């Protein structure tokens, strides 16, 4: 059993980068909640147009992810963090003036570019700040800020829609983004020297040592997309809309409560003892959704999914970083989230088609079964990573 490091995790710089991540993801999830309603009510758009405003944003993020590592290496982590957060904030203010659907799509794509780079560079900064022997625990806290944003963003959006104008809502989101700039400016970042070339080759855009765990991440995010994309519609079909607003609150509660314990267990014993039970819990939570008929069952499934999925994401991100050299942390995070975002985007589309034939209960039943494939993919990824390691520094510890 590994001995825990005495070095602190919650330093000033770590708190600042967590706040940047929390604010950016809060704005992101607020838009996901508000923009479809804005397209339908404020622009008299269609349901397909409402869905497309999220798809084009994710498309930009997926396209730019592979380039993020090179950009960060070329210009430095702090400089890119400040530039990307500033341009993300600038684009946030532009929503106040947009009243044309195609201009909105262009703005979404533009903002998606900077979102992709921000979320890559903040992960790399956090990984470099956290003591090496406490990365599982530290990155768990960092990723928890993303999961908290899943609750905060939609809560703000859903509670203010209809009470204030869309322009004032967009202005509020812009202020959140603006605060993230002030959190970013005092950050002290120890730059890790990497390549400064812009060679557009697969080996330079992706960190190949991360590919095995990235494939596991894609398989998890594909089925998780059934939750973030359809939970509100599913709850509506069950006449449980009042309870659905608390689904992600239960999700976040179990994730927060379990995070210190699972993070320390990851660091001291190893990832397997955390990941295998988490995959099972994720599957059980999806199974519970398939048989949900009451508010209690819906909220309980949210708690179980939060415990499973909320633990898996930081664990997989930690493995991605540990499996790559220190000077490739940006590439590692970019590679992992390229696959992860692709899983959510393709899952939302494919499962959206599937649900029209199967219904929601059968969809979640299917998701619960196929999520268990990760029980076989994870040990495969470990074997693949170890067999592909050329030196001790590249191995997963």
What do you see in this structure?
InterPro entries: MFS, MFS_dom, MFS_Exporter, MFS_trans_sf. It is a multi-pass membrane protein. This protein has 397 residues and is mostly helical. It has two domains: 183 residues, MFS general substrate transporter like domains (Growth Hormone, Chain: A), CATH 1.20.1250.20; 183 residues, MFS general substrate transporter like domains (Growth Hormone, Chain: A, Up-down Bundle). The protein is 79% helix and 0% strand. The chain has 15 helices and no strands. The protein is globular, with a radius of gyration of 20 Å.
Explain briefly what this protein structure is.
This protein is mainly alpha-helical and 397 residues long.
């Amino acid at each position: 059993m590994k001995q825990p490091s005495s070095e602190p995790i919650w330093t000033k710089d770590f708190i600042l980068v967590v706040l940047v991540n929390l604010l950016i993801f809060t704005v992101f999830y607020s838009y996901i909640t508000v923009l479809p309603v804005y397209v339908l009510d404020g622009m008299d758009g269609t349901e397909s147009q409402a869905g497309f405003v999220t798809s084009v944003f994710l498309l930009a993020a997926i396209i730019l992810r592979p380039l993020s590592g090179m950009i960060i290496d070329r210009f430095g982590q702090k400089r890119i963090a400040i530039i990307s957060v500033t341009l993300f904030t600038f684009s946030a203010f532009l929503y106040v003036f947009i009243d044309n659907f195609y201009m909105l799509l262009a703005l979404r794509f533009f903002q998606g570019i900077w979102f992709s780079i921000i979320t890559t560079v903040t992960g790399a900064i956090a990984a470099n700040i956290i003591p090496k022997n406490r990365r599982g625990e530290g990155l768990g806290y960092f990723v928890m800020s993303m999961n908290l944003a899943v609750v905060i963003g939609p809560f703000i959006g859903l509670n203010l829609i209809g009470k204030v104008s869309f322009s004032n809502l967009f202005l509020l989101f812009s202020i959140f983004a603006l605060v993230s700039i002030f959190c970013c400016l005092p950050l002290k970042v120890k730059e890790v020297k990497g390549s400064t070339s812009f060679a557009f080759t697969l080996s330079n855009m992706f960190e190949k040592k991360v590919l095995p765990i990235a494939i596991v991440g894609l398989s998890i995010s594909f089925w998780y997309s059934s939750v973030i994309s359809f939970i509100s519609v599913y709850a509506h079909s069950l006449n449980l809309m009042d309870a659905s607003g608390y689904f992600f609150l239960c999700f976040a509660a179990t994730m927060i409560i379990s995070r210190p314990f699972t993070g320390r267990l990851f660091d001291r014993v190893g990832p397997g003892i955390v990941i295998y039970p988490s995959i099972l819990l994720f599957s059980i939570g999806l199974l519970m959704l398939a048989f949900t008929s009451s508010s209690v069952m819906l909220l309980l499934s949210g708690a179980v999914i939060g415990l499973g999925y909320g633990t898996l994401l930081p664990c997989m991100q930690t493995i991605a970083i540990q499996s790559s050299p220190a000077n490739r942390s940006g590439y590692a995070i970019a590679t992992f989230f390229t696959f992860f975002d692709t899983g959510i985007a393709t899952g939302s589309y494919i499962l959206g088609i599937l649900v029209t034939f199967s219904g929601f209960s059968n969809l979640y039943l299917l998701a619960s079964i196929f999520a268990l494939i990760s029980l076989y993919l994870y040990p495969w990824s470990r074997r693949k990573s170890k067999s592909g390691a050329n030196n001790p520094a590249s191995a997963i510890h």
